Task: structure prediction
Amino acid sequence: MKLKSFALTSLTLCFAAICGTPSVQAATLTTIVDGVSNARGVSFGPDGSLYVAEPGIGGDGNCQPSPSTLFQPICAGNSGSLVKVASDGTTQRLFNNFESIAEQPSGNQGAGIQDVQFDSQGNAYLLTGFAGYPGNRDLESLNLGAKFPIPDQQLITFPPSTPDKVLNTPLLAQLFKADLNTGEVESIFDFGKYEITNNPDGGDVVTNPFDLTVSGDTAYVVDGGGNTAYKVKLDGSESEAIAIPKKILSASSLPPLPPGQELPPGLVDILPGGNIAIQSVPTGGTIGPDGALYVAEYSGFPYPENESRIFRIGEDGNPEVFLDGFTQITDLTFDDQGNLLVLQFGDDSQLKGDLRFLPGSLIKVAPDLTRTTLVAAGEGLESSAGIDIGPDGQIYITKRGVGPELGSVVRVDGIVTEKVPEPASLVGLLTLASVGATGAIAKRKRQDKLGEELLPKAETV
Result:
């Protein structure tokens, strides 16, 4: 269905008329809704309503050091919600005052409600993040964590909380079936407990579920803290965790440190021969035209430019590099023509600027692997976090995904024509050959039309 024009509400919002393809060199970004704090995933419900996840700004509760903030404390509060913009223009916040953690006093880098997606029957599923050691979540998790090992470097850099300092946020780091009318949630999978008891990537015991895709009877979740992709049956009966491998770089990519300072233990792995291994930090997942799961990474410290990868996970469950040469990807999806849309949080390393306003971009990868920049850095996609294609076939993006009330959802109108040569990728070429240029619809983040079956396949991170 087409989305109707929206009226002005307590949150600034607007819809422009659906236009034909404009003959312009730069895209136009139309703001749909703004005023969202630490905005994350964007999606559409069965009735055409737009939803944007609002993790919130934490609060004045207990705090924990977080790898996501280079070990600066993030503190708990009840400031999260799910922002709904109905097709008639009505805007409201659901799950208001939901559990949230964020830096204080800035309110940046929030974790809470991360994403909402729908199955083919119109049921809603809610994903919550965490961004830290899951034993700090509540007393039950802390007691569970005491029974399982924690790496020595983690004990030095960000040890578990004491019982009186746990965050008291039991709803975080979970997947729920959600009733959007009553606000009731039913837990399907607990990523915090799974990370404690299994630690799939074998590194630090950290979880931060970041992105959700629902396909058929399965939820696919990308955990940026645990460096893991999950496949979870929607009835909770089965689950599978797939670790995403680290990236090997030259140690020369590390930024210079002030005199007398050293890297915190465990931030990177120092390897023989002058190399380092950095964490993947996967942040986006989508189902491809071939039914495989495609997972994109942000890349951990030192957040190198042009080193982020996209993995393909097929039926064998092995993550293989499909494409590389990107920078700080936060999300991706396929359109109806089989093009892969890649959203970059920033084209520059986050060490080079204000995390709230990094110049991000949107890149289209055609089935023949040709890359076209649809929205270039500096054209309005600052620090973008989520992407989806609406019922009208248009691209919708959450931007300014860091900071209190800075976030918004914009619609991309128009295109650019700049093409970027595709780096050689044997794996990518082989995979493309197996996929074929079918132009099939690959869905991805949003549900298919109600009553149609979503493609059942794998995911990864």
The chain has one domain: 28-253+275-435. The helical segments are 139-145, 152-157, 191-198, 426-435.
